[in-house]
Amino acid sequence: xxxxxxxxxxxxxxxxxxxxxxxxxxxxxxxxxxxxxxxxxxxxxxxxxxxxxxxxxxxxxxxxxxxxxxxxxxxxxxxxxxxxxxxxxxxxxxxxxxxxxxxxxxxxxxxxxxxxxxxxxxxxxxxxxxxxxxxxxxxxxxxxxxxxxxxxxxxxxxxxxxxxxxxxxxxxxxxxxxxxxxxxxxxxxxxxxxxxxxxxxxxxxxxxxxxxxxxxxxxxxxxxxxxxxxxxxxxxxxxxxxxxxxxxxxxxxxxxxxxxxxxxxxxxxxxxxxxxxxxxxxxxxxxxxxxxxxxxxxxxxxxxxxxxxxxxxxxxxxxxxxxxxxxxxxxxxxxxxxxxxxxxxxxxxxxxxxxxxxxxxxxxxxxxxxxxxxxxxxxxxxxxxxxxxxxxxxxxxxxxxxxxxxxxxxxxxxxxxxxxxxxxxxxxxxxxxxxxxxxxxxxxxxxxxxxxxxxxxxxxxxxxxxxxxxxxxxxxxxxxxxxxxxxxxxxxxxxxxxxxxxxxxxxxxxxxxxxxxxxxxxxxxxxxxxxxxxxxxxxxxxxxxxxxxxxxxxxxxxxxxxxxxxxxxxxxxxxxxxxxxxxxxxxxxxxxxxxxxxxxxxxxxxxxxxxxxxxxxxxxxxxxxxxxxxxxxxxxxxxxxxxxxxxxxxxxxxxxxxxxxxxxxxxxxxxxxxxxxxxxxxxx
Length: 684
Prior knowledge:
Elements: H1 3-6, H2 13-66, H3 78-90, H4 96-119, H5 127-157, E1 170-175, E2 179-185, E3 195-197, E4 204-206, H6 209-212, E5 216-223, H7 236-275, H8 280-287, H9 291-295, H10 299-326, E6 346-359, E7 365-367, E8 370-372, E9 402-407, E10 419-424, E11 429-431, E12 435-441, E13 446-451, E14 456-462, E15 471-478, E16 481-487, E17 491-498, E18 501-509, E19 512-514, H11 525-534, H12 556-569, E20 573-576, E21 589-595, E22 609-613, E23 618-620, H13 644-648, H14 654-661, H15 665-678
Antiparallel strand pairs: 1-2, 2-5, 3-4, 4-9, 5-6, 6-14, 7-8, 9-13, 10-11, 10-14, 12-13, 15-16, 15-20, 16-17, 17-18, 18-19, 20-21, 21-22, 22-23
Helix pairs in contact: 2-10, 3-5, 4-5, 7-10, 10-12, 12-15
């Protein structure tokens, strides 16, 4: 062998550079994988801590309800609510004032059941529980309305003793926070008395001659709640998804326990093999041995592993429940007939006006110091107007529409003139036919219309009148306290969120301050959302809203992960709407961000940073909000991260990170729930 052949082959400069480049790429890849692994482990740890605190708060809430001891039944306990209903049915001699007083408790029980159906996670609600709660709600609603009818009959039997000295007719007005009642009894039957107006109100009826000469009573029962609209059924897709989540959790628990047992079994056999050699046949016998006996040797390890599995499954179930909040339905729930109100497109506002004409019952008569009254077995009878047959009447227009003027509830906002709908008892829906000459006086808050036949009527408004949003901003006010501002075509709504509570901070309509009864009232997120919807401030899309609004669709998984990250960072960072969010694909979202540590008012031109997030990769963008063209280019001297949390750690101050770590889980959950409910990334 010659020296030349033995000499090592010399590496060229190009090959050397290539080797160095490959080594550098390998090193960067290893560092990236290690960082991503560390970030995921840290996020899992934070999620476990959040779930543990959440479980504790749920137990605390149950205990607080238990120690209230206010004498009211627990509506979630079937025997208690059934006993309450049965005992109230036996009370048959109540006045209207007594029924109205009792209605406060009944409405409170109904509201508790509604909140239980809404607040309880879908994976914790069984079908039989849903049926029980809905059944109790319907029974309470029907009984409450029946009680109003019975008490009205009792009042009308005494109408002659309560007659007005001037008109000779009876008038009764009862106003309450939940109900306003107007009753007028036609005792004189004067054909010239055809305009019925309740004293000290703007409520008015223009009745035809045939009613002016009949022994009738007119009742307007204005309930500030809506018990006429049927409870919205759980869609088949939602039921299927809920059942899938529930079965998934149960199956995974069983599977996980089996895996734990298998791991413990193998660990036990390993220990046995180290101490004494066993033959293959003996090993097979050990594999078929009693798992419980083997588990007893490593009980502590078993409990820790099982707890970790339960946390993992609960986290997955929570994620699935959040997914239900933002999933878009594949099809509309129903197709409405002509004149039928589509309750996915329109919302009833201001309660329900129950308009009824009754036949006057026999009146009380004094006799030898006693009051004698005939009580009809069939109870209070409705006066049919117009009658089913009009052949006996000579004039063709003997039954003209009745003109009605109603007062609109003060705390309800209509951004456009409301429409009037009447209840179809047979079809069980609202419809707009049979109503004419509608006139809305916004300054006086009066609505006048002509009605062919009496029955429940309500005012409706487009559910999506404030969608899509023009912009939004989430700004910290303090640790565990933020301000969410949503700007629409008609209004600007500011919502404060702290711990597990929300409050309406301010409302502007057409750039003018608007006072609302909700301002300053702290409520849980779901109660707050329901209250806003009932006042007409609906900024909460449903699964069917995309059929009525042009949206900027984002993938549900990406959207959920983004809202979770925004909520986590919201104590120290302000976020806002970016025009580039529309330009990126549905698998990515773009938001503005800046560190915000004090409670000062937002500056006019803050120095925002643009972030792009795809669910598993976060980056800072090179462009800004004023750039002319869109680009996904990475900002210089920055790098990719798996979450927004780890991305901001690169440039956040120590004070900001400390605020984030000090955030309470209840606060983060409340912010996340509000973001999921408004879906700002898809509806802006």
